Structure formats: structure tokens, C-alpha cells
Automatic annotation (TrEMBL):
Coiled-coil regions, chain positions: none
Keywords linked to the UniProt accession: Membrane, Transmembrane, Transmembrane helix
Membrane-spanning intervals of the chain: 6-27, 39-62, 68-87, 108-128
Key word Membrane present: yes
Pfam family, one: Spore_YabQ
Protein name: Spore cortex biosynthesis protein YabQ
Top-level taxon of origin: Bacteria
Record has Membrane as a keyword: yes
Organism of origin: Croceifilum oryzae
């Protein structure tokens, strides 16, 4: 390995140490921000080490065909140390600011979609519902006006039939009330579970 290759490898490993620090700070900020706990932490830790190992060894393979020397480990450790001494606090604040900006952008887009798409649709549905109710009420009133003379003409027949039909109607109303009460009790029971 030439001296040029060794210097290149040394600087790239310092940079890899910086990258490891940035990735670790990003992970720490995200873990605190989203309150990640339990087995997810172990899984993400494992993922972190896989990503970092892949990053370091791909850079190492690119720079010196994967030759592993002791000074390479020292360069990585020195890169992480220098990052935490100089840039960790600044980078943590920058990451937190980026997360806040991203959250704000997402909330802005959600509110915009609500204002531009969802509210007009809901307003249109509400308006159509009101219009349909108005038309149905108008139709019902007109039907009552037109049927009133017919009901008057049929009243002698209905007076004779009503005593015979009334028990069946009352029984149907009673069964409907019982069914409705059972349905309400079942719904309350399902909601409480």
C-alpha cells in the first residue's frame, strides 16, 4: 500500500468516524423525539450497527481494497471523538430543527388538504343532505294535500277495517320496540367492551 493510499484511507476513516457520530446523534434525537422503547430500541441498535459496518467497510474497500490495519480503527475512533468534541451539540440542534421543520411542513400540508379538499366535500355533502330533506318534506306535504280527499272518501271503509287490523298493528309496534331495545342493549355492551 502506497503512502498516498494510506493517507487517503486515514482521512476517509476520519470522515467515517464523523458519519458514525452524525448517524448516532440522529438516532438519539429521533429515539427521544418519538419515545421509542422496548424491543424496538434493540432492533434499531442492531440496524444502526449493520448500517455503520456497511458504511465503514464499503469506504475501506473503495479506498484500499479492504486492507484492515490498526491505524484504521484509531482513525475511526479519532473521527468519532473529534465529532463529539466539535460538532455534536450543533448537529443535535440542527437535527431537532430539521425534525420540527418537517413536522411543520407535514401539518401544513394536512391542514391545507383539509381546507381545500375535505371541508368543501363535507360542506357539499351537508348541503346535498339538507336539499334532499327539503325536497322530501315538500314532496310529503304535497302528497298529504293530494291524498286528503282520497282519505276522506275511504274513511267509511277504514272505520270498519280498523278494529280488526289495530291489534296486529299494535303487536307489530310492540315487537319493533322490543327489537330496538335489544339492539340498543347489545350496542351498549359492545361499546363497553
Amino acid at each position: 500500500m502506497t503512502l498516498h493510499t494510506q493517507y487517503l484511507t486515514m482521512f476517509l476513516m476520519l470522515g467515517s468516524g464523523f458519519c458514525l457520530g452524525v448517524i448516532l446523534d440522529t438516532y438519539r434525537v429521533l429515539k427521544g423525539r418519538f419515545h421509542i422503547r422496548g424491543w424496538a430500541v434493540s432492533l434499531i441498535d442492531l440496524l444502526y450497527w449493520f448500517v455503520c459496518s456497511g458504511l465503514v467497510f464499503s469506504v475501506l474497500f473503495w479506498s484500499n481494497w479492504g486492507e484492515l490495519r490498526f491505524y484504521i480503527f484509531l482513525a475511526i475512533i479519532l473521527g468519532v471523538f473529534l465529532y463529539y468534541q466539535w460538532l455534536s451539540k450543533i448537529m443535535t440542534r440542527l437535527i431537532e430543527t430539521c425534525i420540527r421543520v418537517i413536522e411543520w411542513i407535514i401539518q401544513f400540508h394536512i391542514k391545507t388538504v383539509q381546507m381545500i379538499v375535505i371541508r368543501p366535500i363535507l360542506f357539499t355533502i351537508h348541503l346535498i343532505r339538507k336539499l334532499l330533506l327539503f325536497v322530501l318534506q315538500l314532496f310529503w306535504k304535497m302528497l298529504q294535500i293530494f291524498l286528503r280527499p282520497l282519505l276522506w272518501l275511504c274513511s267509511p271503509i277504514t272505520k270498519r277495517i280498523e278494529p280488526h287490523v289495530r291489534p296486529y298493528i299494535n303487536r307489530g309496534i310492540l315487537l319493533g320496540k322490543k327489537w330496538l331495545e335489544k339492539w340498543r342493549q347489545r350496542k351498549k355492551k359492545d361499546d363497553s367492551e
